[in-house]
Write a structure and sequence with these properties.
2 domains, 268 residues, alpha+beta, elongated, seven-stranded antiparallel sheet, 11 strands, Umud Fragment, subunit A, four-stranded antiparallel sheet
Length: 268
């Protein structure tokens, strides 16, 4: 004899929250629940690609994800209310629900392991005016893996240096391997050519370039020379030397949060 049992919308709500698609399975919509679950996984993977494009894509991805989940939850509640004389199916068993829940946990952990992004907060004023104290930036930890390229001049990177174990720095790549860098009162030169100053902030209005930072360097293989945009306030390669690219943790993409809301979304 078939067992008839009304669906509980509260249970459908809880199931949908703990594992998207599980509410539909509870309501007897096995295929629909699996499709919703797979859709959520694919949407998460798609968002990884979109986030790299711009802050607007990050924001859009978050909004789409929330909308997708809300629609799935509402759908499970509505169907639970409609199923007043629901006939239990073979998969309406506690162990099936548990297996689906465990599958969602495994999938979530796998997705998180694929997440290439890291949040970082800028400290101090060494990167003024492009990065202010307290700005939160998004770091792509696999940017150079995907690009299959060396860090380029102008990139702002997150790195550590053996001379300051445990500390992380945000600085701009100014010279790459094989280049000769000269810093003096008249400016910054790479292979005897003056560097563009569109992101470097120094001069008479900033008290002039720190004499202690003057010098000449040949950037070794597999290394980059980094500087702070605000040269007179920056601890950088002038003092701890070029950075091995193996110590680079990722590339800064854009500011996703700042005290000055006009700065949110600024690509760096």
């Amino acid at each position: 004899m078939e067992k008839v049992k009304k669906r509980n919308p509260v249970i459908a709500l809880v199931f949908s929250i703990i594992s998207i698609g599980l509410g539909q399975i509870y309501n007897g919509q096995l295929v629909k629940g699996i499709i919703i679950f797979i859709g959520a996984v694919l949407l998460s993977l798609l968002n990884f690609a979109l986030v790299r494009i711009s802050f607007l894509c990050l924001y859009a991805g978050i909004m789409i994800g929330i909308f997708y989940m809300v629609v799935a939850i509402i759908d499970s509640i509505r169907n639970a209310i409609k199923n007043t004389d629901y006939t239990l199916k073979r998969f309406n068993r506690w162990y099936v629900y548990l297996m689906f829940f465990l599958l969602s946990i495994i999938s979530s952990n796998l997705i998180l392991s694929l997440n290439p992004y890291q949040s970082c907060r800028a400290l101090g004023d060494s990167m003024l005016p492009n990065l202010e104290d307290g700005d939160r930036v998004l770091i792509d930890q696999r940017y150079y893996d995907f690009k299959n390229s060396f860090p380029m001049r102008g990139d702002i990177v997150l790195f550590e240096t053996p001379s300051h174990e445990g500390a992380l720095f945000l600085k701009r790549v100014v010279a790459v391997e094989g280049e000769t860098l000269v810093i003096n009162k008249s400016g910054i030169y790479i292979n005897d050519l003056p560097i563009m100053k569109n992101w470097l902030f120094y001069g008479e209005e900033n008290g002039g370039l720190d004499l202690y930072g003057e010098g000449k360097w040949l950037v070794p293989d597999n290394s980059v020379f980094v500087l702070g945009d605000n040269l007179n306030r920056s601890l950088d390669s002038r003092f701890f030397g070029p950075i091995d690219i193996d110590n680079i943790k990722g590339k800064v993409l854009y500011i996703y949060w700042a005290k000055n809301k006009d700065r949110i979304g600024l690509r760096l």
